[in-house]
User: What shape does this take?
Amino acid sequence: MRETRADTRQAMLLAIGLHMLLFGLMFAGLWWTRTAAPTSAAGAPVEATLVDADALSQSMRQALSDRPEPIARPEPEPLPEPVEEDAAPPPQPLPEPVPQDAPTPPQQQAQDFIPVPDTVEQDEVVDVPTPTPTDEEKLQEEKRRQAQVDLTEKKRQEEAERKRRLAAEAQEREEKLAEIRRKRAAAAREAELAAQKLKQIADAQAASNTDSSSSAASAPAGNNGVDTGLKARYAAALTEAILAKWTRPETVPLGARCKLIIRQLPGGEVMDAEVASPCAYDELGRRSIEAAVLKAQPLPYAGFEPVFARTLELNFVAQDR
Assistant: This one.
């Protein structure tokens, strides 16, 4: 901040006033210490008579010897010298500590007298005995051993917790993968079943159209009963449908016969097919003919309702298409 003329003038006036006050105090101190003139009292002057002390009586001498000592008048304290403006103030004495401010409380009882002072330094007396270096080393060693045991136990618990967490995570992953596999397998089965049903419906419609046209042309009019002719045509239609899906193995000779037991539902859907005795086919031929029956479903149904049977026996004759 910049100093102005008004500030300079004010500072000079304050300095002059301070000096005048100091000179006034010095003058008052000098006037106070000046010796006052003796006061003249009214009345006759004091007269005194000199008497020899040896001429006094014994009682007077005794009285003079017993008189009290005159009280010495205290000398006046010297006035402090005037302090100059630039002089540093004298050091002040420290106050004496009072009992309340003393660093240590005052002793209530006197100490016991010690005739001969003990020059040997004594350790502080405590309730717990001071351990020897050997005991101290054993204590430290025990503490280190206990700390090592605690650390080992902590690491073991952490490792066990980590393994448990990893096992739980692995089990959860396996459960999720198994659920995904199960869902995929179920979806695949559903898709396969749907495809089979669509194929069966298409084949049934095609077979129905073919059988309807052939039945209308060959079946006698007005005959809706069960006769051997319809059964023979039904057996021929079943054999034709199975031959269309069968590839004859080389081990099965032409004309060889085998008895088949077929379990089916209305509409021609095959539930089960197995080979029964008598059967001249080997194991490969038997498995191939059972597979051909399952591939040929739906079996012929439309037009053969009167002779349809859920379980039927078919004498199959090996031949090529």
